[in-house]
Specification:
The chain is α/β, with parallel strands linked by helices and 240 residues long. 41% of the residues lie in helices and 15% in strands.
């Protein structure tokens, strides 16, 4: 691998072999690579992630020692919701920038100057309400998309791209907002992110696209990635 390659670390709640991570790899700019490790913490409930600070810090140290990454993306919104302050603690531990799913999405939405947001997730209603309550503390008005109350945490919804597009279009028609925010990468919206923006005429932020922009911006790197929405195409400066 060329010396000029920047290697980013990814820590995810379960395992690194989930299909939606293939979509994430397609949005990486040239000479950006990822080293992905799963925490193996997710079982039958997102509550399994609570109180796992020591595990996260230990695995973060291992990730840095093994792969010499320049920064870390801590994926899974509930990892940070159930372990408050873990991003800062991990950054201090590994002495590298750390970003997480929800905080990155909030940073992206702020940068895009939107106030009302439609939340699309693969989660149950109680989980959606938890994310809503957290994000609205930052001054956003949030509408909730459909809930999936019988889904096994971490599993795919099994929606084809055209089905997901139809779901988004119908949900947005009933809940018009200034932006759409996808939390929960198992929905796999990245392949149709640009199509959604083109159809609805509003910015679409996903947790993974936001984390990529957020971490690279913290590393003072700037790109223009076409085909995956306004955030990655325009690469707005991070509001510090």
């Amino acid at each position: 691998m060329p010396d000029s390659t920047v290697r980013l670390g990814v820590l995810s709640p379960a395992t690194p072999d989930r299909p939606h991570f293939k979509s994430f790899e397609t949005i990486l700019p040239p000479r950006i690579a990822i080293a992905h490790e799963g925490l193996g913490l997710l079982g039958q409930s997102y509550q399994d992630l609570a109180g796992k600070e020591d595990v996260i810090l230990s695995r973060g140290r291992d990730l840095v020692n093994k792969h010499s990454v320049t920064g870390v993306m801590l994926t899974g919104g509930f990892v940070t919701l159930f372990n408050p302050g873990i991003e800062a603690k991990l950054a201090t531990t590994i002495e590298r920038p750390v970003v997480s799913a929800i905080s990155s999405a909030v940073a992206a939405l702020r940068t895009l100057s939107v106030k009302s947001v439609l939340l699309m997730t693969p989660f149950d209603r109680a989980s959606d309400e938890m994310i809503k309550a957290h994000v609205e503390k930052f001054g956003f008005a949030m509408a909730l998309g459909p809930s999936f109350d019988n889904r096994v945490p971490g599993s795919s919804l099994g929606l084809r791209p055209e089905q997901l597009l139809g779901l988004v279009e119908n949900t947005f028609a009933a809940n018009p907002t200034q932006a759409i925010y996808f939390q929960g990468a198992t929905m796999d919206p990245l392949p149709i992110l640009q199509q959604i923006e083109s159809c609805l005429g509003i910015p679409v932020v996903t947790s993974n696209s936001a984390m990529l922009w957020h971490l690279l911006s913290k590393l003072q790197l700037e790109y223009a990635i076409s085909g995956y929405g306004r955030l990655l195409r325009e690469w707005p400066a991070l509001d510090r």
